[in-house]
Design a protein that fits this description.
Length: 242
Amino acid sequence: MAHKEIPRISGTLRAKSIQIPEVIWSAKGMVVLGRRIKSCLFSTDIAVIRNCNADSVLAVYPFTPQQIISQTIINASSIPVFCGVGGGMTNGFRSALISKDAEAQGAFGVVVNAPMVNENIKLIKKLIDIPVIATVINEDTDIQKRLDSGVSILNVSAAAKTAELVRHIRKEFPTVPIIATGGPSDDSIRETIDAGANTISYTPPTTAEIFSDIMASYRKEQDVVDNPEDKDAALENMLELI
């Protein structure tokens, strides 16, 4: 079958948006509340969220979950958001209330961290109708008990062992929906997809890194003004950045 060229339309002001690695589009994806999702942007940066081509947002952060944070991200996002609701320091009835609020705010799902006990997941599931996503970090997790407690989706995050852990889960649970970290390269992303991940979570560059690249290009533009004799060389360098 001949390769089909996909038309790509963009605006001048949006040409610098963050593009997820194209290899992620080869994932099967999963359909959550009617939306097919192959990629999750792992970020809580609203500027990054508004300037990306990911299918969804994985809004999990290393602080106590706060409704104002989830509400702000959901309101600013044009794509589905999965909100972190605790599991470590934050749990119990508080996590359940945060989950209920996240659903009311428009979240597509709530994410519980690895330490959260199954009884707490059951409480959350009683209060909400959106999916509960459980983070899995190693093979010690009892997947069946997680599913029995009300978990609908697994979020596998095991660093360099992620693909191996996905493969291990797939052997016993061939149909459970899995989101997994893809790692730093196309090869690691492809390995995770081949292992059985439906959806890949992608960590974008930080705004500091993006600013660094932009400022470097600005400085080269300034060099053209300050040193006219170097204009041709500077222009060649700028063209390489485009």
